[in-house]
Structures are given as C-alpha cells and as structure tokens.
Write a structure and sequence with these properties.
By secondary structure, this protein is of the alpha/beta class. It contains five helices and 14 strands. Strands 1-2-3-4-5-6 form a six-stranded mixed beta sheet, covered by helices on one side. The protein has a six-stranded mixed beta sheet with strand order 7-8-9-10-13-14. Helix 1 links the parallel strand 3 and strand 4. The relative contact order is 0.15. The mean pLDDT is 97.
C-alpha cells in the first residue's frame, strides 16, 4: 500500500490517499474547504491515475470532514465512520461558525459503520480497524500490517497525542487505548497522523512525553 498526503484547510489537516497496484484508492478524512482545495484533490487522483472506491473517516471532527460531501457526491461513495461520532454530523455547520468558518451544509451522514476488528478491503489491500477513543468517542485508526503503515487520525502525533478537551474527549481513555493498541505494534510501523509530520511507533515509544 502506498500513501499520498495532502494538507488542507486552516487547521492544516492531513488528507490521505491510500492505493495499491490495482489503481483503486481509499480517501481518508477529506478536509478540503474550498473549490481550490477540491481541485487539488482531484488533480492528485488524476496524476496518480487512481479510482476512488472508499471514503473512510478516522473521526468526524469538522476539519476532517469539510470535503466529505464533495468526495461522496463526486465519486459516488458512501461515508464510512465509527457510530460513536455520528452525533457530530448535525452539529457541523454550527460548530464551524465557532471558528469563523461558514459552510453551506452538513456533511453526509455515514452509511457504513466501522467497528473494532473489522477489515476494510479495496484493490489488493486489507486494512485492520482499531477503535481508539479519547480524542473523540469514535476515533479509529487504519493499520496495514504488510507494509507496517498506520493511518492514525488525531490519536497519536510526533511527540504528542490528540487533544481531549473537545466534546466526548477523555484523556485517560486515549492514553490507555494508545498503550494497549498502538504501542504493542512493531517499532518500525510508520504513523501518518491527522496533522503534522509522520512518525514511527518506535520513536513515540522512546520519546513521547505523554506515554
């Protein structure tokens, strides 16, 4: 599995394109806020000659779903997320205003439920789903054992962890989940977070002050 990173919106959110030799692609956390950013996503897909077949969310905080409706409607995809975050969908427009951001509509309600232990398949790729709540109630990560790559959302960052002061956040729950589900993975696993640079499990095991 290969990973293409695109960074969007004022929150500098990382949107990921996951793909393999089949040409099929999963789009993770589309964060495009305007037409220019939407075009950047489309251009990246075209340049890599990818066919989007999955739209998956690590969680449903506003900066990770700004572009979800565009992707769903443009490529005819259903949104997949953990049910514990569904409550955020109807609050999206109002919550965005708290940050001075106006959006025309809420993102579409997810129709595919992602659960702990599920396997997500596209092309030649199988992703394991781990539920790691605490940043949000429904935060999940996507792990590809063969290439030892982890799409981590806002659970674990380089030298930090996800904030837990938003609705549904729980710091103790987050740290416990990271320790029990992520820190048991091999050191060389590469972590692609929702913001900032990538890191590895080994680097965070050795030097993350929150762990």
């Amino acid at each position: 599995m290969q990973v293409k990173t695109l960074t969007f919106n004022p929150f500098q959110e990382n949107t990921y394109l996951l793909y393999d030799n089949s040409g099929e692609c999963a789009i993770v956390d589309p964060g495009m806020l305007d037409a220019g950013e939407e075009q950047q996503l489309t251009a990246a897909l075209e340049a890599l000659q990818l066919k989007p077949v999955k739209l998956i969310q690590t969680h449903l905080h506003l900066d990770h779903v700004f572009g979800t409706r565009y992707v769903a409607e443009t490529y005819g995809l259903e949104v997949a997320a953990h049910a514990d975050d569904f409550f955020m969908v109807e609050q999206h427009k109002e919550y965005a205003l708290n940050f001075g951001i106006q959006v025309s509509a809420n993102p579409p309600m997810p129709k595919v439920v992602l659960n702990e232990g599920d396997v997500l398949r596209f092309g030649e790729t199988e992703l394991q789903i781990l539920h790691v709540p605490g940043h949000s109630p429904g935060s999940v990560v996507f792990y590809h054992p063969e290439t030892r790559q982890l799409i981590g959302g806002d659970v674990l960052f380089q030298g930090s962890v996800g904030r837990t002061d938003l609705p549904g956040g729980n710091h103790e729950q987050l740290i416990t989940g990271i320790q029990q589900k992520l820190m048991v993975l091999p050191d060389e696993v590469k972590v692609y977070p929702g913001h900032g640079p990538h890191t590895t499990i080994g680097a965070e095991r050795a030097g993350n002050p929150y762990l």
